[in-house]
Amino acid sequence: MTDHTAKVGVVVPIWNVAPYIERCAESLMTQTLDDMQFVFVDDASPDNSIDILNTVLARHPERATQVSVVHHEVNKGLPTARKTGLGHINAEYVAHCDSDDWCDPTMYEKMYLSAKSNDADMVICDFYRTNGKKRFRRRNHEPADGDLVRGFLHRLFSPCVWTRLTRTEIYRQVDFPTEYYLEDWVQSTQTQALCQVVNFLHEPLYYYRHNPNSLTKHLSENSCDEGLRQCMANFKFVEDYVLSRNLAVANDLIWMKFYVRFKLQGKLRQRKGRNQYLSTYPEINRHIFGCPYLSLQDKASYLAIYLNLYPEFCRYVWPAVTQIKRLLSEPIKG
Questions:
Q1: Tell me, what's the pLDDT at 219?
Q2: For position 10, what pLDDT does the model report?
Q3: At 305, which helix (H) or strand (E)?
Q4: DSSP states of 48-67 as a string?
Q5: What's the pTM?
Q6: What are the tens digits of pLDDT across the range 116-129?
């Protein structure tokens, strides 16, 4: 940890991201905010990600005193890497950046200025979901009643930690999970409850890289079951946290439960796991069609699973619906 307190500190865990780390690191080194701190956490990466990172850092000697690279001798996982990084941060505000994503060069300056002008404990920005070629804007909406915890549970805004800039002193009060899947939920639930003033910056400043090839690792039965186990463990933390503090009621958690059990998607596409799906949080089944914050696709997916038609739904039904919606939205030529 440096003696100087920077305006913004960024934690970047690194593991097996050689194809992407250069773009990520370059986007951080070229930020328009000068007074920053960057903590890269090498989580025992098996590839040459750190060599590539060092090449980028060498191109930016002006940032040399602001950068530190921390090494784990063994792989400890994303949540622990983020916790390690936070322990080395000495900044007024802290942010997280995933090493296969990248940032707009003005991101942290705009978020910091927004935080200071509103005396905010947290700033949340919009982001792009991209495959590296096409991009789709994802908007975060502030709750009309100002209830941040319930707004988050009702999926008004993303739980992803990389859309947020948070006072470091608040983040230090967070209990980090040990399980990987949905670890953002555990952190974001706590910070939202602890923050008094949260400002929404309606600009897409972060580029979240969606890699469809990574989905293949979730298709096996074992990986689906392990993903479900981890999701349920992290969800249990969120559930206990909000209910014990009267921050929400059970019905506020319907979407999260729906999302958790969808970790079985790989098995469902192989026409397996239907009974397991329906018996995981079975109390929400009768509430799905009346839940206002589940989308039409969510409800249609549930119906397809209930009727044991999920593979056909994925292959034929919803793609056709999407195509029809796209055609209807296009202007008529002539």
A1: 52
A2: 98
A3: helix 296-306
A4: SHHHHHHHHHHT-GGGGGGE
A5: 0.91
A6: 999 999 999 999 99
Q: Name every residue whose Cβ is closer than 8 Å to that of residue 254 and which is 6 or more positions away in sequence.
A: 284, 287, 288, 291, 293, 294
Please state, in angstroms and rounded to a whole number, the distance separating the CA atoms of residues 243 and 252: 10
Q: Which pLDDT value is given to residue 331?
A: 66
Angle (deg, nearest 10), helices 221-244 and 183-194: 10
Report the percentage of the chain scoring pLDDT > 90. Answer: 85
Give CA–CA dist 192/156, Å, rounded: 13
**Could you tell me the CA-to-CA distances from 98 to 18, 165, 202, 266, 292 in Å, in that order?**
13, 14, 21, 25, 31
Which residues of the chain are in CATH 3.90.550.10 domains?
Answer: 6-210
Cα angle vertex 204, ends 172, 82, to 5°? 25
Residue 318, pLDDT above cutoff 80: yes
> Considering Cα of 71, then 86, then 78, then 62, what sign does the dihedral take?
negative
- Residue pair 102/27 in contact by the 8 Å Cβ criterion: yes
Read off the pLDDT of each residue in 246-272 and give the average, rounded to a whole number: 94
Concatenating the DSSP letter of every residue in 182-213 gives THHHHHHHHHHHH-S-EEEEEEEEEEEEP-GG
The pLDDT, as a whole number, for residue 216 is 37
In angstroms, rounded to a whole number, what is the distance separating the alpha carbons of residues 164 and 304?
Answer: 35
pLDDT of residue 213: 43
Q: How many CA atoms lie within 13 A of 125 on its CB side?
A: 27
Determine the distance from the C-alpha atom of residue 51 to the mean position of all C-alpha atoms in its chain, rounded to a whole number.
26
Domain at 6-210: CATH architecture: Alpha-Beta Complex (3.90)
What is the reported pLDDT for 217? 44
